[in-house]
Amino acid sequence: MDLKGRHLIEPADLTAGEMERLFGEAERIIARPKDYAEVCKGKLLATLFYEPSTRTRFSFEAAMLRLGGQVIGFSEPGSSSVSKGESIADTIRTVECYADIAVMRHPKEGSVLVASRQSGIPVINAGDGGHHHPTQTLTDLLTIKLEKGGFDGITMGLCGDLKFGRTVHSLIHALTRYTGVRFIMISPEELSVPEYVREKIRKSGLEFEETRDLREALPKLDVLYMTRVQRERFFNEEDYIRLKDRYILSASKLKSAKQDLMILHPLPRVNEIAAEVDTDPRAHYFRQAKNGMYVRMALLIALLGVKEV
Ligand code: NCD
């Protein structure tokens, strides 16, 4: 595999085999972090965030710093020349003069792809509108792999805002490459998965169900992926208020779930998982956030080509 110099815009930019290699590298980093402390020495990461972020930006920055590299960037587009009307194409052409690799999050679908086409340095999509979020998928898959050993044959429940949730779209795309995965998609009618995602599952020949009922779906699941209703992508506040608390995972609902269920959430959580669930051994979402840093370390190493992955 030579990932050196490549962009990561959506999960399909990596083969299943390449993802496996990144997971292997992430596991080696977890086991021996000291061996990696200088791997990116002299390298500079630029983080260009046109939308809010906690985990994605911090985990990328922490990843680069833990690899011995350095970081520049903005988390407030208002503080850069974006506020003067500069295009993303011009911004990325400027950033490549200074940095070796860039991570970009933007509210418009397709914008990070556009930026990558103008860029001489690798560009990583940290979320483009309601479209894709491939490094969250790497995080999610590594977390499942560490616990379950693999993905074949799992029954995956996805619950909440499946329409605007970019993490859901990327995760489904990546999982369609494995055998025997079954999807149970739990959402209000208005927030069901976009047709292009449904089509992707159909083409893969995998089974899927769509339901409105979390309680009924729960006992069947090996993994439950909860998501936040994406307020910022709604056209009006009334629809958001009507839909936001439709699904709330509580300790009492979990009584009917499997003992080895994994509860995941890309975070931030609003109300969709009651705080009482955090102490349940099946809650993996904070460990998942930590894994995000390790898999991003592996990704930076691979795209920069500083070490054989
Ligand atoms: C997600 C995102 O930005 O899409 N957050 C994240 O990166 N961990 C999910 C969300 O904001 O709901």
Describe the protein's topology.
Blueprint: H1 16-31, E1 44-49, H2 55-66, E2 70-74, H3 88-98, E3 101-106, H4 111-117, E4 123-128, H5 134-148, E5 155-159, H6 166-175, E6 182-186, H7 195-204, E7 207-211, H8 214-217, E8 223-226, H9 237-243, E9 262-264, H10 285-304
Parallel strand pairs: 1-2, 1-3, 3-4, 5-6, 5-8, 6-7, 8-9
Helix pairs in contact: 1-5, 1-10, 2-10, 5-6, 5-10
Bound molecules: N-carbamoyl-L-aspartate.
Describe it for me?
The chain is of the alpha/beta class. It has two domains: 11-133 and 291-304, Aspartate/ornithine carbamoyltransferase (Rossmann fold), CATH 3.40.50; 134-289, Aspartate/ornithine carbamoyltransferase (Rossmann fold), CATH 3.40.50.1370. It is built from ten helices and nine strands. A five-stranded parallel beta sheet has the order 7-6-5-8-9, with helices on one face. The protein has a four-stranded parallel beta sheet with strand order 2-1-3-4, sandwiched between helices. Helix 4 (111-117) links the parallel strand 3 and strand 4 (123-128). The longest helix is centred in the C-terminal third of the chain and has 20 residues, at 285-304. 47% of the residues are buried. N-carbamoyl-L-aspartate binds at residues 55-56, 127, 133, 136, 166-167, 228, 266-268.
